[in-house]
TrEMBL record:
The lineage of its organism: Bacteria, Pseudomonadati, Pseudomonadota, Alphaproteobacteria, Rhodospirillales. Belongs to the binding-protein-dependent transport system permease family. CDD domains: TM_PBP2 (cd06261). The chain crosses the membrane at residues 16-40, 78-99, 111-131, 160-184, 205-227, 267-290. Residues 74-284 form the ABC transmembrane type-1 domain. The keyword 4Fe-4S does not apply. It comes from Azospirillum picis. InterPro entries: ABC_transporter_permease, MetI-like, MetI-like_sf. Keywords: Cell membrane, Membrane, Transmembrane, Transmembrane helix, Transport. This is Sn-glycerol 3-phosphate transport system permease protein. PANTHER family: ABC TRANSPORTER PERMEASE PROTEIN (PTHR30193), INNER MEMBRANE ABC TRANSPORTER PERMEASE PROTEIN YCJO (PTHR30193:SF37). Pfam families: BPD_transp_1.
Length: 297
């Protein structure tokens, strides 16, 4: 009798773990194992020909400290994140507020905002390459109407990275808008109506009611936006290849160059480990900083 009772108590737990097993197996095989393998490889030299990898300890990380391209790509990535994350989130919120209202052509406007998200990044990069073409591109053609000179947007260190930021914001804002729009539509209308009965204006309702209720969505969007900013590589490969003079070399592109162009897998693994650590620290920092605002403590 006790064995039968114990079996009936364990059955739901076993059933639950069996349902989770495929997802856990895929997560372990394609996330945790590669991360551990990258950490292990970063402590070993790159195998070449008949010479196997040998343990070198922290030599790869010591070489990273003396690598000026690493520091340049890391600084570029910080600037890239600071330039794209706040702007993407702010524009996404504004677009969601706009298309959530009762306006004519709301469905078409939502589709227009979301269309860049559906395009492959390679296609987006080629579209914007045409826009940025000196003299013949759309941007210079428009600026030429006002008598402004042609600009080599992707060929100048001063404008190349901001040009990539514009493309990223253009593509990602519509994606983040969907999450904000879903959160806005899930809000009870009674909260807004109660605030209006108390005499609150639009700005007060947005600041005191709408924005606090959007904080869980904002946290989710921020974490994803930061991760996207540090894993951008295809845009750089197609549009600039890290140039000019490493002005647009982001950290993941530097890893790609080291690992697949120079075939230094040990050093590339060390760079990957540092990138993963940076993303984990940033994600934990965002959760800790926004936790009270999300849960109203």
């Amino acid at each position: 009798m006790p064995d039968r009772r114990l079996g009936s108590q364990l059955a739901p737990h076993v059933h639950g773990w069996l349902l989770l097993l495929p997802a856990v197996a895929l997560l372990a095989a394609f996330t945790y194992f590669p991360a551990v393998a990258a950490l292990w490889s970063s402590l070993h030299s790159t195998p070449k020909g008949a010479r196997p990898a040998r343990f070198v300890g922290l030599d790869q990380y010591a070489a990273m400290v003396d690598d000026p391209v690493f520091w340049q790509s890391l600084w570029n990535n910080v600037l890239f994140a600071l330039g794209t994350v706040p702007l993407s989130v702010a524009i996404a919120l504004l677009m969601a507020l706009w298309v959530n209202g009762r306006i004519r052509g709301r469905t078409a406007l939502r589709m227009a905002y979301f269309t860049p998200t559906m395009l492959p990044m390679i296609a987006v990069a080629n579209i914007w390459l045409f826009f940025y073409t000196p003299g013949y591109g759309l941007i210079d053609q428009v600026l030429g109407l006002f008598g402004l000179p042609d600009t080599n947007w992707l060929g100048s260190p001063a404008t190349a990275l901001p040009a990539l930021m514009v493309v990223t914001v253009w593509k990602e804002a519509g994606f983040f808008m969907i999450f904000y729009l879903a959160a806005l539509q899930a809000m009870p209308p009674s909260l807004r109506e109660a605030a209006m009965l108390e005499g609150a204006g639009r700005w007060c309702i947005f600041r005191r009611v709408t924005l606090p209720l959007l904080m869980p969505t904002t946290l989710f969007v921020l974490v994803n936006a930061v991760i996207n900013a540090f894993r951008t590589v295809d845009l750089v490969v197609v549009m600039t290849r890290g140039g000019p003079d490493n002005a647009t070399a982001l950290l993941l592109y530097h890893i790609y160059e080291v690992g697949f162009r120079y075939w230094d897998t040990g050093y590339a693994a060390a760079l990957t480990t540092v990138l993963v650590v940076i993303l984990v620290v940033l994600a934990i920092g965002q959760f800790v900083y926004l936790d009270r605002k999300v849960h109203y403590r």
